[in-house]
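Key result, reporting period 2: structure in, sequence out.
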């Protein structure tokens, strides 16, 4: 494995069914990537110590996409931040009141971010992406989640937002992804060239025979 000068701006999605497997992947990959995404699939199958253990290896991106009444969303995100989680997703559709309260909460923590999810990458592109991005920006939140195909336009308008892009595939591997459900996908090089700050990659890394080799290929391509 080549020595990376800088870590790749990638959150590895630990979409696995047990804590041991997740920690093994994190231990293997943490020298090369920004951090790790944890969703309900792993979280609810793991012990309460999972987040603490993963946090020793890199920042945690908790992808729960909270969507509830404003007070419940705020309390939920606060609980996540108090655990040391660095990034938490919420649905941008939650509305102005909820997003504004979350922006106030975000400002009371140092460096931790609430990311507004616009439209899932399993859905076709719609104008709603840009409407929801405007709501995120106007609320004062510092980041959002959007596919690579909207990032260029979003970056032109919102130069300071932290934009995370899912649906990333390193297609040069000629790798078949089982049960593919994401429609708006892109390569790491394309997403970053459009203005994404960080990428989310899961199955194309975890399903590879040699995950480190995949990351080396990405590093070389950039």
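The corresponding designed sequence is given below.
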């Amino acid at each position: 494995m080549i020595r990376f000068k800088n870590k790749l701006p990638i959150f590895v999605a630990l979409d696995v069914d047990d804590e041991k497997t997740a920690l093994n992947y994190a231990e293997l990959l943490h020298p090369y990537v920004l951090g790790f995404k944890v969703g309900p699939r792993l979280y609810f199958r793991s012990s309460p110590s999972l987040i603490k253990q993963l946090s020793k290896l890199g920042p945690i991106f908790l992808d729960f996409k909270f969507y509830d009444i404003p007070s419940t969303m705020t309390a939920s995100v606060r609980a996540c931040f108090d655990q040391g989680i660095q990034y938490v997703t919420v649905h941008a559709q939650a509305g102005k009141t909820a997003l504004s309260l979350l922006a106030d909460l975000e400002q009371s923590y140092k460096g931790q971010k609430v990311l507004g999810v616009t439209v899932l990458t399993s859905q076709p592109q719609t104008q709603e992406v840009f409407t929801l991005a405007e709501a995120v920006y106007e609320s004062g939140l510092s980041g959002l989640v959007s596919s690579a195909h909207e990032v260029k336009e979003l970056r032109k308008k919102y130069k300071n937002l932290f934009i995370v892009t899912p649906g990333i595939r390193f297609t040069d591997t000629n790798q078949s992804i089982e049960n593919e459900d994401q429609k708006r996908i892109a390569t790491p090089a394309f997403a970053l060239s459009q203005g994404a700050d960080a990428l989310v990659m899961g199955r194309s890394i975890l399903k590879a025979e040699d995950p480190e080799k995949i990351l080396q290929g990405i590093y070389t391509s950039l």
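Residues 172-177 have pLDDT under 50 and may be disordered. The chain is about 40% helix and 20% strand. This case is discussed further under Risks and Mitigation.
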